[in-house]
Amino acid sequence: MVRLTLTAIGVLALCTVCSAEDKGRCPSGLPTNMSVPKQDAPPASDPDKKYLGTVTVLTAISDQGYVCSTQILRGVSKEVDKTAETRVRDWHFEPARRKGHAVPVAVLIKLTFWKTKTGEIVTDSPKP
């Protein structure tokens, strides 16, 4: 019985490793004490939208272009910050390159949020 249990655990572990997707190497040693200046309201692209603010997200990107981690450096509100972080985590980037080789990087991403007349919170920040 013990042998069967250990075999089952081994098979499950092997299946987990085999099915895991390689997302590449992530950058290490991200700065934690960066200050981001407050951004002025950009001109409204639509007069029916009210500017809520701009969320600045420190984003670690692997050498495969996947988002490894995110950190809000300047936020607007819990709801808007969570929306920004979720949106950025879903993105996939073209890997950064140094001397022709893909490298992990950390970048600042700014997403601008607006509130429509109907109360919907939207962003006009494009995907990468």
Structure, explained:
- The protein is of the alpha+beta class and 128 residues long.
- The chain has one domain.
- Helix content is 23%, strand content 31%.
- The longest helix is centred in the first third of the chain and has 18 residues, at 2-19.
Number of alpha- plus pi-helical segments: 2
Low-confidence stretches: 1-20
Class from secondary-structure proportions: alpha+beta
In N-to-C order, the SSE pattern is HEEHEEEE
Beta-strand percentage? 25-35%
Shape: elongated
User: Mind describing the biggest β-sheet?
Assistant: 4 strands, antiparallel
* Relative helix content: 10-25%
What is the strand and helix layout of this fold?
Elements: H1 2-19, E1 50-61, E2 67-74, H2 78-89, E3 96-98, E4 101-103, E5 105-115, E6 121-123
Antiparallel strand pairs: 1-2, 1-5, 3-4, 5-6
Characteristics:
6 strands; single chain; 23% helix; two-stranded antiparallel sheet; alpha+beta; elongated; 2 helices; 128 residues; 4-stranded antiparallel beta sheet; disordered N terminus
